[in-house]
Amino acid sequence: MSETDWEPVSGAVLPRYAGVPTFMRLPYVPEGDPRRSEVEIGILGMPWDGATSNRPGARHGPRGLRDASTMIRAMHGATRATPFKAMKCADMGDVAMSPVDQDEALAAAEAAIAGMLKDGIRPVMVGGDHLCTLTVLRALRKQRGKPFGLILLDSHTDLYPPYFGGKTLTHGNPFRQAIEEGCLDPHRCFMAGMRGTSYNKEDIDYGRAKGVHIAEIEECMARGWTSVMEEARAVAGEGPVYVSFDIDFIDPAFAPGTGTPEVGGPTSFEALQCVRALRGLDIIGSDLVEVSPPFDPSGNTAWLGASVLFELICAMQP
Description:
32% of the residues lie in helices and 17% in strands. The protein has 318 residues and is α/β, with parallel strands linked by helices. The chain has a single domain (3-315), classed as Arginase, Chain A (3-Layer(aba) Sandwich), CATH 3.40.800.10. It starts with 40 loop residues before the first strand and ends with a helix. 53% of the residues are buried.
């Protein structure tokens, strides 16, 4: 396989509406493919929303994002970065996650990520709801043997305890659970964009008590996103860090296709700038979650999500 075979199919060769869609028109390299040993960045779909607390639909996110991402071209318009020339990237397919058994679904997802890590592939996960992220964090913790940092761009902290007084996890719990399991170093965790109504402040109080840096939206808007992301970089430091992007970080005027929208967020341009500011960090993995195509028949949210994905991959370029 030549170097050029790893680059996306150009729209000048095959029209963007033609062919079987993969993430950004990259090669499809499923488990067992001999090319797998060459992959450096693997984009993996987790089409599952079994932990959604109210409006489901994010299970359709990976498929919607694949289709939308055929619009992505090879060069970043502002930075001139060409990540597909610098790194061998591939679509690793979807995890077969049970829609009716949470434990089985999460175990399958973690095993898929563990297999990628064993093969030296940095994961870019596409959800699915935000509990999918916990499976990536668990696999990274087992591989690395120690906790790492986190940068979360979201309208929610996802630091709540399980709902209804039980033990079943939801998409409102992944980072609390990850801290409790020792996946994350809370002092190297930075969260930005939190807003909206809430049941209480238990999530904020828990996070700050553990040492998590939380920048709520009022602070972000007052300071400006450049300042906020400078702090994010400082908190992450030079050590390994995971980046998680919930599409509801962006104001629903720009991204209505999500299950838990919160008004008063950043614009699409500001959100892309936030991800762009992470270039140069030791990013060991990333994700984009909670795109729910049924809530946006226009497809604009999926296209914005695909653009965020491209920014994440550019940020992971050495």
